[in-house]
């Protein structure tokens, strides 16, 4: 492995999405990530299908698409943490790791003698990151959580979807497990910060990351809109709450996303639709005026864009440097010339299927380039290799 974290070893006791997402980011950055899984069963997401990866004969394997999306670059070690042998082996592994990452329910690992206070006795400068639904304290600290329920509890679904009085109106979740993903991102940031501090102080760290905290944190402008105005944000479909025109518009043969971000772009847009007068109209001359007079503006734009095809508008708006884009399906995303140029889709060698597709890290480091050499592991694929490498005997 290469990359800026090639000197770091991670003991990944997490499963499902948030913790594994963090560990995959660290693996992409070059860290040696040892993923501990239950014997015979493994990570819960191994069975979360279909779809499952196909073998060379076209038959379904036991490797789900979900698991394959979040476990690249890791080595799998099969251990039963409920047994004294498994617990002893985890302690021996932790003694040779820089970071432990776990997402067990609050207090669960303490019963196994694998909590932070237990493991720092064998590795005093250990960085230990715990991911839970609600954190290590508080009235819900012992409750389980999943992405969907946190999107609801944390307010995201109250601002996602069409208004109740519109067709298809009502609360909607985001189409990917965004709370899990953002929790993994925040966990990674915390781990990297703790590693940087340890280099200066020699001290380890305990990091407590809660999914609900993360969701509240990334309410971002929607939260501040409420805190500043006192008005609760509402679902408003694809319309941006603060910047206009930003919405989905129907063309003659398809749909266009328009993302005008400032007055200069709006003026260029008006020229493209042959309505330069709109840029000087007192109702629309500034962003604040456009937001205040949005219904009138939208009616004009909708009428204008219906007069021509999607490809024509995309070409004209691109030429005028007005931010816009088509609404691609996921297959179309991987056919985008820019996505292909950036090699976001790679195929890695895999022992079951020959190769496995992977959507790789978006990070590009010039002086410590990332490499993608290790496919998501089979269950227990590296147990003997890891224990032998680290000089750990199994009893």
TrEMBL record:
SUPFAM superfamilies listed in its UniProt record: CoA-transferase family III (CaiB/BaiF)
Annotated InterPro entries: CoA-transferase_III_domain (IPR050483), CoA-Trfase_fam_III (IPR003673), CoA-Trfase_III_dom3_sf (IPR044855), CoA-Trfase_III_dom_1_sf (IPR023606)
UniProt cross-references to Pfam families, sorted A to Z: CoA_transf_3
Sorted UniProt keywords: Transferase
GO MF assignments: CoA-transferase activity
Domain of life of the organism encoding this protein: Bacteria
Name the UniProt record assigns to this protein: Lipid metabolism-like protein
Source organism per UniProt: Caballeronia choica
């Amino acid at each position: 492995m290469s990359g800026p974290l090639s000197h770091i070893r991670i003991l990944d006791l997490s499963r499902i999405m948030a913790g594994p997402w963090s560990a995959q980011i660290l693996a992409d950055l070059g860290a040696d990530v040892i993923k501990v899984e239950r014997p015979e069963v493994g990570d819960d997401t191994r069975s979360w299908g279909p779809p499952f990866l196909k073998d060379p004969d076209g038959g379904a394997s036991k490797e789900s698409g979900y698991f394959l999306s979040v476990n690249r670059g890791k080595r799998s070690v099969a251990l039963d943490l409920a047994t004294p042998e498994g617990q002893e082996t985890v302690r021996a592994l932790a003694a040779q790791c820089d970071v432990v990452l776990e997402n067990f329910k609050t207090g669960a690992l303490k019963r196994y003698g694998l909590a932070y206070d237990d493991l720092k006795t064998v590795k005093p400068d250990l960085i230990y990151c715990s991911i839970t639904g609600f954190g290590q304290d508080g009235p819900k600290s012992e409750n389980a959580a999943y992405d969907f329920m946190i999107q609801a509890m944390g307010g995201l679904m109250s601002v996602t979807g069409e208004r109740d009085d519109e067709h298809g109106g009502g609360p909607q979740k985001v189409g990917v497990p965004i709370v899990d993903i953002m929790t993994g991102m925040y966990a990674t940031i915390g781990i990297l910060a703790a590693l940087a501090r340890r280099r200066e102080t020699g001290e380890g760290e305990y990091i407590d990351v809660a999914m609900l905290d993360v969701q509240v944190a990334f309410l971002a402008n929607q939260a501040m809109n409420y805190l500043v105005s006192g008005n609760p944000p509402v679902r408003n479909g694809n319309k941006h709450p603060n910047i206009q025109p930003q919405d989905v518009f129907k063309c003659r043969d398809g749909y266009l996303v328009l993302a005008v971000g400032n007055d200069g772009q709006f003026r260029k847009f008006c020229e493209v639709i042959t309505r330069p007068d709109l840029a000087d109209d007192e109702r629309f001359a500034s962003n604040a005026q456009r937001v205040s007079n949005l219904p009138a503006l939208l009616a004009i734009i909708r009428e204008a864009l219906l007069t021509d095809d999607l490809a024509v508008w995309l070409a004209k708006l691109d030429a005028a440097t007005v931010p816009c884009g088509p609404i691609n399906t996921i297959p179309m995303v991987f056919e985008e010339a820019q996505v292909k140029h950036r090699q976001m889709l790679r195929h890695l060698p895999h022992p079951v299927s020959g190769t496995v597709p992977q959507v790789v890290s978006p990070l590009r480091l010039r002086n410590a380039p990332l490499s993608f050499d290790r496919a998501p592991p089979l269950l227990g694929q590296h147990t003997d290799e890891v224990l032998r490498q680290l000089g750990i005997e199994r009893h």
